[in-house]
Write a structure and sequence with these properties.
Pathway: Glycan biosynthesis; glycogen biosynthesis. Belongs to the bacterial/plant glucose-1-phosphate adenylyltransferase family. It comes from Uruburuella testudinis. With 446 residues, the chain is an alpha/beta fold. It is built from eleven helices and 31 strands. The protein is 24% helix and 25% strand. The strands form seven sheets. Strands 3, 6, 7, 8, 10, 11, 12, 13 and 14 form a nine-stranded mixed beta sheet that branches. It has a six-stranded mixed beta sheet with strand order 18-21-24-27-31-30. A five-stranded parallel beta sheet has the order 16-19-22-25-28, with no helix packed on it.
Length: 446
């Protein structure tokens, strides 16, 4: 037995085994958000369902963390544009044996309070599922996660820390630059990691005592004693002025009651870069989504997708091999620092520093440079794409150049807030085609 397989929750209690913790823990993944800063990428899917890394959806990282942490009682709370996410969960995550008490259950928003009442916030989403939790799951601990971040974490370690500290609520935290801390819930802690102060998105964030240029930020990851969670949610729903939100309502309440502790991500991070630094990314903007993919194609990426000691699972697809065929440019350097998924056909084209998802076709004399190309895209002949995100099912016509002339790109496509990334969707390309055909005059009636 490994040293960490048992935990003394109290000196007067028997040791608590890791399997006992897993058996008594329900995981709830909040996956209902749109992710509006990804613009058209989330018009038809929620942010957790967005494609990532050539072979996954964003939520696969959170779900893989659960399985790798031996936590296999999971509920996924969905709301906005849930079809794509629900289909992915059904196809990719329905393998857990329910007869062993293991499952990934889907908990979509439903009209149960009145005809217009959906999930009103993160806390309300959990509150509306409390009857199901009490009747069917009966957990002792509830682990609440966000389904829209890229990271590797051993949640079991956080649960151990929660139990050993005697906390009623534990919040996962990560060190961030103080200059960026106004986007997070920020806390200060004592030497025992008991939270002394918690401020949601402060204009003047408090710094860490040892590091004046850094702040301690909430990751939106919480462990609750189930009874305390039910009590807190029941009290909150009765208030007139509430945001129905964990960060704004439930966590400050736990702080006031003196039962809130912090868990540093440093203690449970399972995905470190070559230098040993922890890895956690919010890919909620076009710029961050693109930059994170560009890191994947470097020699030593910050995130190791090939690490089998903490594997990332997703939808296993049986595709044909990728085919590279060069009739003319046999001597040139045509494939450089890229990730190319299965079922792609590359013919006499140059692929540089790009991520190609499955079933992408690139035809003769085209150049794909620093692009993220989602599934089922066809790129015609003599195209040149640079710094682009190409949405699923796009057909790029012959000779099209995108990402080379920003002013011209802005007329037809979405330019990121940072100004360096171009998002291309099928609707945008259809509009360009209609504009082009209109400028040529109406066709003759035959």
């Amino acid at each position: 037995m490994r040293p960490d397989d048992t935990l003394l929750a109290d000196e007067n209690k028997a040791p608590l085994h890791t399997l006992d913790i897993a058996e008594n823990t329900l995981v709830l993944i909040l996956a209902g958000g749109r992710g509006s800063r990804l613009h058209e990428m989330t018009d038809r899917r929620s942010k957790p369902a967005v494609y990532f890394g050539g072979n996954w959806r964003i939520i696969d990282f959170t779900l893989s963390n659960c399985l790798n942490s031996n936590l296999k009682k999971i509920g996924v709370l969905t709301q906005y544009e849930a079809h794509s996410l629900l289909r992915h969960l059904q196809h990719a995550w329905s393998f857990l044996p329910r007869d062993r008490g293991q499952f990934v259950d889907m908990l979509p928003a439903r009209q149960q309070i009145n005809e217009s009442m959906w999930y009103r916030g993160t806390a309300d989403a959990v509150w509306q599922n409390v009857p199901i939790m009490q009747e069917h799951y009966k957990p002792k601990y509830v682990l609440i996660l966000a389904g829209d971040h890229i990271y590797k974490m051993n949640y079991m370690q956080m649960l151990r820390d929660h139990i050993s500290s005697g906390a009623k609520c534990t919040v996962g935290c990560i060190e961030v630059k103080r200059s960026e801390a106004d986007q997070f819930g920020i806390m200060s802690v004592n030497e025992k990691l008991k939270v002394q102060e918690f401020i949601e998105k402060p204009a003047n964030p408090p710094s860490m005592r040892e590091k004046p240029d850094s702040s301690l930020a909430s990751m939106g990851i919480y462990v609750f004693d189930a009874d305390y969670l039910y009590q807190s949610l029941a009290g909150e729903v009765l208030k007139e002025h509430t945001h129905h939100d964990f960060g704004k309502d439930i966590i400050p309440r736990a702080l006031e009651e003196g039962v809130l502790y912090a868990h540093p991500f440093e203690r449970s991070c399972m995905g470190r870069n070559a230098e040993g630094s922890i890895y956690w990314r919010d890919v909620g903007t076009l710029d961050s989504y693109w930059r994170t993919h560009m890191d994947l194609v470097t020699e030593h990426p910050q995130l190791n997708l090939f690490d089998q000691s903490w594997p990332v699972r997703g939808l296993p697809t049986q595709t044909m091999p990728t085919k590279f065929f060069y009739k003319h440019n046999k001597q040139g350097r045509v494939l450089d620092n890229s990730l190319v998924n299965g079922g792609c056909i590359i013919t006499d084209a140059e692929i540089r520093s790009s991520v190609l998802f499955d079933h992408v076709t690139v035809k003769e004399n085209s150049i794909i440079d620093s692009c993220v190309v989602l599934p089922n895209v066809t790129i015609g002949k003599n195209c040149h794409l640079k710094n682009c995100i190409i949405e699923r099912n796009c057909i790029i016509p012959d000779g099209m150049k995108i990402g080379l002339t920003p002013k011209k790109d802005a007329e037809h496509f979405r330019i990121s807030s940072g100004g360096s990334v171009v998002l291309v969707t099928r609707a945008m390309l259809d509009a360009v085609a209609q504009e082009s055909s209109g400028s040529q005059g109406a066709p003759e009636q035959v």
